[in-house]
Amino acid sequence: MTDLSLSLSPLTPADLPAIEKLDERAFGPGRFALSAYRLREGVRPDENLSFVAHVGTLLVGANRMTAITAGGAPALLLGPLTVDPPFRSRGIGEALMGKSMDAARAGGHRLVILVGDEPYYNRVGFKRVPHGRLTMPGPVDPARLLYCELVEGAFEGLKGAITRA
Predict the structure, then answer these.
(1) Domain range for residue 123?
(2) How many domains does the chain have?
(3) Does 111 reside within a domain?
(4) Residue 93 has what pLDDT?
(5) CATH label of the domain that carries residue 65
(6) Which pTM does this prediction carry?
(7) Is residue 1 situated within a structural domain?
(8) Which of 102, 96, 58, 69 is nearest to 80 (CA)?
(9) Would you list the DSSP string of 16-73?
(10) Any bridge partners for residue 81, and if so which?
């Protein structure tokens, strides 16, 4: 992290309009067609596990966690993890993700799923879902479907669809 005056705080409903603008800048309108968005559509993120990052009064990042099921077992969907493009590569995304993962662990959650770049998320413990073990509600590059066990063995034996909780 650089010398930014970064503060992380729980996401509140008042943050949602600013997060929507941030997602628009970072991902564009095509994001609504993605499978992960289908799982989150109309579902509020868990505010105990979702965080925003501010530099001063400017919202520069956000991470949401949403309850899902994976192969019939309770799990969390991480994302979108969004950092305003001018603030990327400063550790903000990793700080947000770490805060969410720590809160999920403390809350007794066992498993987190996401769609993302394995080299980035591997640094915090995510692994590629073995091909065919879990399916999303739409097309997803299998190399981008990742999981992280918050409790050892939580992924063992899971197979099937990823659905809304």
Answers:
(1) 6-164
(2) 1
(3) yes
(4) 94
(5) 3.40.630.30
(6) 0.90
(7) no
(8) 96
(9) HHHHHHHHHHHH-GGGGGSHHHHHHTT----TTT-EEEEETTEEEEEEEEEEEEETTE
(10) 63
